[in-house]
Amino acid sequence: MKRTTIQDVAQAAGVSITTVSRVINNNYPVKASTRKKVEEAVDTLKFKPNLLARSLIQNSTKTVGILTPSIENLFFSEVIKGVDSILKEKGYTTFLCHTEGEATNEVEVIHSLVDRRVDGMVVLDPRKENVVSGYFEELAKRVPLLLVNGYAQGTGCSYVLNDGEGGARMALKYLITEGCKRIVFLRGKKSHSYDIKEEVYLEFMKAHGMESRILRIKDGNDIKTVEQAKEAVADYIRSGEKPDALLACNDWMAVGALSGAKSEGLLVPKDMRIIGFDNTIISMITEPKLSTVDQQMTKLGQLAGNRIYKMMTTKDIENQKTYLETRLMIRES
Amino acid sequence: MKRTTIQDVAQAAGVSITTVSRVINNNYPVKASTRKKVEEAVDTLKFKPNLLARSLIQNSTKTVGILTPSIENLFFSEVIKGVDSILKEKGYTTFLCHTEGEATNEVEVIHSLVDRRVDGMVVLDPRKENVVSGYFEELAKRVPLLLVNGYAQGTGCSYVLNDGEGGARMALKYLITEGCKRIVFLRGKKSHSYDIKEEVYLEFMKAHGMESRILRIKDGNDIKTVEQAKEAVADYIRSGEKPDALLACNDWMAVGALSGAKSEGLLVPKDMRIIGFDNTIISMITEPKLSTVDQQMTKLGQLAGNRIYKMMTTKDIENQKTYLETRLMIRES
DNA sequence: TTGTACGCGTTATCAC
DNA sequence: GTGATAACGCGTACAA
Q1: Domain residue ranges in chain A
Q2: A7: number of CA atoms within 13 Å, CB side?
Q3: Helices (H), B225-296
Q4: Is the Cβ–Cβ distance between B301 and B78 less than 8 Å?
Q5: Which PANTHER family does the record match to this protein (chains A, B) (predicted)?
Q6: CATH code of the region B63-162+297-326
Q7: CA A172 – CA A176 distance, rounded (Å)
Q8: Fewer CB within 10 Å of terminal CB in chain B, N or C?
Q9: Interatomic separation, CA of residue A56 and C1' of nucleotide C6, rounded (Å)
Q10: How far is Cα A65 from Cα A71, in angstroms, rounded to an integer?
Q11: Distance from CA of B25 to the nearest CA of A (A)
């Protein structure tokens, strides 16, 4: 399975490899007749330049790695599509890798990408361990690196972030104006975005002299989220509590909460209001349709795409943090 | 940002690059003391071999490309995770690329991967155009290629496939034994898997002397599927029809169908039974829970992972087609 | 306008 | 055990 090289083309066209290279890259003047000969040879031999060799000498692979904790979460899918669309347009190929939300996997995958000399990396929802340990900060010195959402306190990295804080506050304010008094907060175990929202929630409830109540489920991103959220909410209601509103950290949880409330005979939104987070498609297929905080996922992705591009093409190393505002989508819950 | 090379390490350790290479790859005897010197130099210089250079000479990147039409479809996510888990274990890095279901994108992405010298490729639900045009058959001669599901008639390619045919037949048989008489079939526009199921449906209905009725919606994979399916089913019922069962080509459609039936006042499963396809998580979050045909997605992915591995490591070029059986999951619909 | 020769960072080959 | 040196396939000064 010997592949044809630039040598073969040169020989077939009766010119030197230099000339072939020039025709292919179209970066130096070549006589029209020569160019034609070369192009013909390229066609008949179906020559495709070996990008490994090219990358080796140019020190650039025109490749960007995208890391995500999960490919089952529609939130990430949308963001990824946003990043992708921008980078593709700029002539980059993107490779998607998933880490199952494990910090060790994250490091491992990153090493693999670095070893393969990607030109840059975008990490969605980076693991907090790797942020606080200074791993990313160190990494950012050696390769263009952009983090999207996730823990961002005092780190020397570039970020593009959703304003989850603002979103949570907006949702809570809305619930208050609607007359809700007993607002419950539903979150997964470990994610910085959950922490942020919880903080806002606690502070908000305290400021309004209301009692706070937090329900916790295991993960939050994986397949079991819905079932776990349902259980948690149903249990809570069964225990005699009478919540009149619930704020969930993402739409999967909200779906589960809805299901749990229904199963215990509560009517949504009459008895209990529910607001989710992300505005993914699933918030629209439930009955009633879920109100949610729109995080503008596509836009977030595009923002990230443009930013990493700038980082790769200029020497812009200053670590900038860009926040994207959120919007409240009131539907039927 | 000059990276440290094997040269630097050799110099620091006072040995030749050959020796350094031997220590790193651990493939030739090296005196213990020398090895130690080299390892220290590697550590202090934080040397990481350039995989591009290595791949160039070894003619292998230890990399596999996975193509999917969509990263929003939970069916594909599961399959991908299956493939991934196997290949990772074998020491390969996988790169995921998505094509938005466009045949032209598919070709483009494949070229990019080939140019980057991936050792193999797994294509989920390949576009029919590229199958019938012989594109894949041609490609398979130059690089280990495995297709998963999709049109497989008379092509010289290796396949791993779900037995959608058997699954559809199983579901229909079940509905009959449950006494259903007016069974409707719901499908999306273009996908070979839909075609297969439709064929079985038509043949089955004819054999049982029942009238067939097919509802068609636009795409089937994208975000609008649920809404479109709901509309289609609601319209159908409003037109005066009284279906007592519906077989949908995937779970998204089944969710929409359920919603449509409900909106027209039909009770599921009392008035009308619904069976979906795939057994994705969403089939479990509806009320009632959806019955569906389990396609064993993870297992399918693992099968694919093992198969492409064999193709890459041996010269096993015979194009084999492996079918994975489906199972009927009866829940509440 | 074209060609020669070197270098990118590794591993493979063959001496010693 | 170890070290020169030639590959791998391509881009690009430099020379012609």
Answers
A1: 6-49, 63-162+297-326, 164-294
A2: 4
A3: 225-238, 251-263
A4: yes
A5: LACI-RELATED TRANSCRIPTIONAL REPRESSOR, XYLOSE OPERON REGULATORY PROTEIN
A6: 3.40.50.2300
A7: 6
A8: N
A9: 15
A10: 15
A11: 15
